[in-house]
Amino acid sequence: MSAPTIDAPAVKVLNRADLTKRLVARLTHDEAVVAGIGNTNFDLYAAGHRPQNFYMLGSMGLACPIAFGVALAQPERGVIALEGDGSILMALGCLATIGMVKPRNLTIVIMDNGIYQITGKQQAATAVTADIVAIARGAGIANSHWIRDEAHFDALLARRFEEGGPALLAAKIDDKPGTAQTPRDPALIRHRFMQGLGTGRASALDGNP
Amino acid sequence: MAWSDTFLRILKQNDVRLVSYVPDNVLTPLIGGAAADNYFMSVGATREDEALGTLAGAYMGGLRGVVMMQTSGFALIANALASLIVPYQIPAVLVVSERGTMGEFNIGQATVARTMRPVLDSIAVQHHTLTDESTMPFIVDKSIKQAFATQSPVVFILSPLLTGGNPLAAAKLK
């Protein structure tokens, strides 16, 4: 097997929970965050629930398309997709769509541990040959970068998320599992997310009869 | 008025602006009509489940959408329907042009088409087969309103009886 084709000279292996906390700390304009199935959304939840968080409990691979839809609907709001490497490998076509439409308010963060951690640490193509940043650039997302270390991540996040996109940031991470379990209540997750985005129905139950 | 013009008019009446699709011959007038009308935001997708994800995100962001596909594409979306659209109660409007019947020449299309209604029935997703222009406006308008009122998806299957079917298939069967 050949070595990983990472372009950054010395990419440090980072930690998903830590990176997610760093990201959430940067969110000061009610940015929407859509987190993919499994560990990515577990660590988003662990970083502290926000009304603008969406946790995906199935539909592996659709975090970026969902975030893309939010970005289209609310072009003035920054939208961030958190996705794993196995998940994005399942849905590479969406990078071509995003690269073509170029929503300036969409940022994608890929947590790349090179394994399907949650199903038993089976190796993914990203551990061997597949380079998510190169794939994203090839799909038309020119603003795609490997994260060199924590400081580099912080520096790339020091911007307003409603502009400058689409961007894709990929981090090589360790094999640690997610640090919490998101409550599995899809209807509640959608309802709260929509309230966080200002699109939810006012609760009819709160009004006078 | 062509069936496709009527369909687009009903989408407008119901504030359905996002049109996400994977192309199909039979859908060409719908896709082309939406692309030519600034009211609609047309976005091609690389896969049908990607289109459904985009629709779900757009809906939660306040933008109503429709996803258009052909029957073989429908066979790719069982997971997106069963683990995203249905449990999260997303009122997705789906339009599926029906291949595989009434003059199909491709056995693969004919076989995959037979999976569609059983899959929809098994997860209790409402579907209507549109066969003629006289009943189509009522069915489509009322069913879209029901979808948004009840937070549920609805699928419109475009029968060859409505659309005339795939012109390519007609040519091959001569």
Account of the protein in words:
The complex is a heterodimer of chains A (209) and B (174). Chain A has 209 residues and is an alpha/beta fold. Chain A has one domain: Rossmann fold (3-Layer(aba) Sandwich), CATH 3.40.50. Chain A is 34% helix and 16% strand. Chain A is built from eight helices and eight strands. Chain A is globular and about 60 Å long. In chain A, 46% of the residues are buried. The model of chain A has no long low-confidence stretch (mean pLDDT 94). By secondary structure, chain B is an alpha/beta fold. Chain B has one domain: Thiamin diphosphate (ThDP)-binding fold, Pyr/PP domains (Rossmann fold, 3-Layer(aba) Sandwich), CATH 3.40.50.970. Chain B has ten helices and six strands. In chain B, strands 2-1-3-4-6-5 form a six-stranded parallel β-sheet, sandwiched between helices. The model of chain B has no long low-confidence stretch (mean pLDDT 96).
Main sheet: strand order of chain A: 2-1-3-4-8-7
Radius of gyration of chain A, CA atoms, in whole angstroms:
17 Å
What is the strand tally of chain B? 6
The number of distinct β-strands of chain A equals: 8
CATH architectural grouping of chain B: 3-Layer(aba) Sandwich
Low-confidence stretches of chain A: none
Alpha plus pi helix count of chain B = 10
User: Biggest interface and which pair forms it?
Assistant: A-B, 39 and 32 residues
Number of domains of chain A: 1
CATH fold assignment of chain B = Rossmann fold
Structural class of chain B: alpha/beta
**How much helix, percentage-wise, in residues of chain B?**
40-55%
**How would you sum up the major sheet of chain B?**
6 strands, parallel
Approximately how much beta-strand content do the residues of chain A carry? Answer: 15-25%
Radius of gyration of chain B: 15 Å
Order of helix and strand elements from N to C terminus of chain B: HEHEHEHHEHHEHEHH
